[in-house]
């Protein structure tokens, strides 16, 4: 599902995290609870795996390196430096000649936010006596968190997205979003290095710039990144038109642009880089850049050659030091829905398939090679075949930095709470469901296509929704319906409140239960209307807003004073949405928040005290190259709150996924996971980037997510 347009005042450098005093409790009983949706994420079940690069790929040759907890991805095989080894407990014996210990640095989403971990495994080599496929039984795992949100040493005491780790001797190099860029619709992602022994952290990316996908040269002296430089992100959600920059890993100096248009760099030696870009013929391909050995470094002095041929999308290249024989890539072959890891022989220009021969029906992402080039790592869904199922989390607790806010990712979209907070309605296309916050009593209450949910504040068990397709034109029939979720006779539980055959959606009742605000395309434009909550439009219909633009996603404040909505009225049809407030009597219209020029701010929902709004937005830009993730229509979506006067903007989520459709609970839910049930066949059911499905477009033809 696609959450249309989604933000804020420009140039106000507002603190993102409220201090204890600023953060007023909305609920008398302990604090605030916000629930939101992330497209696809509850099905990921990623672990990091490895295959040999020298033996034919086989199921028994695949090693699962990470432990099957949470979601683990974007691995890196470090050369174990003295600083890294010094972190291990004294009892950990590393025999100098023993080739079997596997060292892995990776990202894990334990507690719902990203942390960087280091695992050491003995007996990981399938050639060794144990022949264990899964490392789970192996007692010899040592696991060391390198960087978590609770890491006071590094100053990382706020939630942040942390990704793409690598190691240069004493220094962990990675990206993080813990510093506000200060500009709306501008990415917070920047490269940092943290000294392992001391935790001393240094920002390597200049302020005001966002860098993605860092990679270290074999000596560690140089870091290459994908970056827009001063230009900034302009809303791209497919392949990014970033450039490649190189700088000194020590302190970020000597920063030079070396390649126009490229992403996901990696080094073979101190002057040879590989990277991906969509080439003129439409195929995403791997290219090589040879930097001059001497003289001045600039885009002019760099020699660029295409490496992978047309006919297959090849991307996220991985190299090993001084290995000019082969690279590893992820591919999408024509006609395949799956992303696989392959080797590419640089001399013969030939692919060697790996993961398709092991698990043809799973996605395999973001390969990386061991320093001795004998192993290729990647992440993939652990699945049932790997003997380890994780519970499906109905509510995944996302650790926050304040004890008076609990934050959950819900497995479903458009959640809303009953007035007492004892039930949640949500949507899974198709169908509307009702469940208790502890995950029990889950029932389908409507089996058709529907979107958005809101509970009637006075009539017990009544839920309003929009029945019909999402993202349809003004003239497509979508109707506001009410569902009596406790009806014994399901055949009479649904009442249709609009019947005009036009696109009516996003119903939200007034706090006295008398009226419903919704948006309708009945005039040819989507504007806001009010109607009688009992009889529907036949009982009274009033126009609240009017204009040749789209007003949508409306919600009513619990104190009855305001209706919040998203609108593209400042730039109709542009896809740019801002949040507005209007009194139910049509007065007091004002803009609440905007995310820069062309930005998106959507799905505003009031706090129980009516003083704040939670919403989703591209205010913090994009956090990773979208091609390094499964499909997200709007990979920039993050969840924010703001007060009604526009102050106290806070970013609640930090990830590279599409977060949307938030709800603010009327009562506090303790911050711990709620398991819905054991995962079954629907796990691992997520899609690779839709835009890689297609063969390249004809010249000039635009393809979109
Ligand atoms: C997860 O939360 C628990 C309990 O707060 C904490 O002990 C643990 O360190 C956290 N893990 C990470 C990776 O942040
Ligand atoms: C990396 O930097 C160090 C310190 O400046 C230097 O001694 C070394 O020669 C450099 N290595 C390479 C391969 O450039
Ligand atoms: C950055 O590091 C280099 C050595 O690698 C040093 O010569 C230079 O003075 C440093 N610059 C700053 C601004 O710290
Ligand atoms: C409209 O509603 C607002 C908020 O309730 C109120 O302050 C204002 O006086 C009303 N205006 C009119 C013209 O009724
Ligand atoms: C799990 O899937 C199997 C086969 O697909 C099915 O028979 C079984 O009923 C499912 N179990 C649950 C709890 O949904």
From TrEMBL:
Tell me which positions the record assigns to the signal sequence.
1-20
**Pfam families assigned:** PD40 (PF07676)
Keywords tagged on the record: Signal
Return the Gene3D superfamilies for the record. Answer: TolB, C-terminal domain
Locate the transmembrane regions by residue number.
none
Q: What is this protein called?
A: Dipeptidylpeptidase IV N-terminal domain-containing protein
Q: What is the lineage of its organism?
A: Eukaryota, Viridiplantae, Streptophyta, Embryophyta, Tracheophyta
């Amino acid at each position: 599902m696609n959450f249309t347009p989604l933000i804020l005042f420009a140039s106000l450098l507002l603190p993102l995290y409220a201090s204890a005093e600023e953060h007023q409790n909305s609920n008398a009983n302990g604090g605030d609870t916000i629930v939101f949706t992330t497209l696809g994420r509850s099905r990921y079940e990623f672990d990091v795996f490895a295959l040999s690069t020298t033996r034919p790929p086989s199921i028994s040759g695949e090693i699962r390196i990470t432990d099957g907890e949470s979601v683990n991805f974007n691995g890196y095989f470090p050369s174990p430096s003295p600083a890294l080894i010094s972190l291990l407990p004294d009892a950990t014996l590393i025999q100098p000649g023993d080739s079997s210990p596997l060292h892995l640095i990776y990202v894990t989403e334990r507690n719902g936010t990203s942390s960087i971990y280091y695992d050491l495994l003995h007996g990981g080599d399938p050639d060794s006596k144990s022949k264990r496929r899964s490392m789970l039984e192996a007692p010899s795992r040592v696991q060391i968190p390198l960087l978590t949100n609770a890491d006071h040493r590094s100053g990382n005491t706020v939630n942040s997205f942390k990704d793409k780790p690598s190691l240069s001797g004493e220094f962990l190099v990675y990206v993080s979003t813990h510093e506000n860029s200060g500009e709306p619709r501008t990415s917070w992602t920047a490269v940092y290095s943290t000294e392992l022994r001391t935790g001393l952290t240094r920002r390597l990316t200049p302020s005001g710039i966002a860098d993605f996908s860092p990679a270290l040269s074999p000596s560690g002296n140089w870091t290459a990144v994908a970056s827009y430089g001063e230009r900034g992100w302009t809303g791209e959600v497919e392949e990014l038109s970033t450039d490649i920059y190189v700088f000194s890993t020590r302190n970020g100096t000597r920063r030079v642009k070396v390649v126009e248009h490229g992403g996901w760099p990696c080094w073979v030696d101190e002057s040879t880089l590989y990277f991906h870009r969509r080439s003129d013929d439409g195929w995403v391909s791997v290219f090589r850049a040879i930097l001059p050995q001497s003289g001045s470094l600039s885009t002019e002095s760099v020699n660029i050659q295409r490496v992978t041929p047309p006919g297959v999308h090849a991307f996220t290249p991985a190299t090993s030091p001084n290995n000019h024989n082969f690279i590893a890539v992820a591919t999408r072959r024509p006609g395949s829905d799956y992303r696989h890891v392959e080797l590419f022989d640089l001399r013969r220009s030939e692919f060697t398939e790996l993961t398709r021969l092991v698990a043809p029906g799973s996605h395999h992402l973001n390969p990386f090679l061991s320093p001795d080039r004998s192993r290729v790592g990647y992440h993939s869904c652990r699945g049932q075949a790997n003997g380890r199922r994780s519970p499906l989390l109905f509510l995944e607790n996302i650790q926050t930095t304040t004890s008076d806010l609990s934050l959950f990712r819900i497995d479903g979209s458009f959640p809303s709470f009953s007035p007492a907070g004892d039930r949640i309605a949500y949507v899974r296309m198709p169908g509307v469901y009702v469940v208790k916050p502890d995950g029990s009593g889950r029932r389908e209450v409507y089996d058709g296509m529907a979107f958005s949910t809101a509970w009637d504040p006075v009539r017990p068990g009544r839920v309003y929704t929009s029945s019909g397709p999402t993202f349809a034109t003004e003239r497509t029939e979508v109707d506001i319906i009410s569902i009596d979720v406790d009806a014994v006779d399901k055949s009479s539980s649904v009442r249709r409140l609009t019947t005009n055959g036009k696109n009516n959606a996003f119903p939200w009742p007034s706090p006295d239960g008398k009226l419903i605000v919704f948006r309708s395309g009945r005039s040819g434009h989507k504007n806001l209307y009010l109607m009688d909550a009992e009889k529907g439009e036949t009982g009274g219909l009033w126009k609240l807003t009017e204009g040749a633009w789209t007003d949508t996603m409306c919600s009513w404040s619990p104190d009855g004073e305001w209706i919040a909505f998203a609108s593209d009225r400042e730039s109709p049809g542009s896809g740019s949405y801002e949040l507005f407030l209007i009194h139910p009597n049509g007065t007091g219209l004002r803009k609440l928040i905007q995310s820069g020029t062309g930005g998106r701010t959507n799905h505003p929902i009031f706090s129980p005290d009516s003083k704040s709004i939670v919403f989703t937005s591209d205010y913090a830009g994009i956090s990773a190259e979208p091609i390094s993730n499964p499909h997200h229509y709007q990979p920039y979506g993050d969840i924010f709150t703001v007060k009604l006067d526009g102050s106290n903007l806070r970013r609640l989520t930090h990830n590279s996924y599409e977060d949307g459709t938030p709800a603010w609970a009327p009562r506090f839910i303790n911050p711990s996971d709620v398991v819905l049930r054991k995962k079954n066949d629907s796990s691992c059911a997520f899609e690779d980037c839709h835009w890689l499905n297609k063969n390249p477009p004809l010249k000039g033809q635009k393809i979109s997510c």
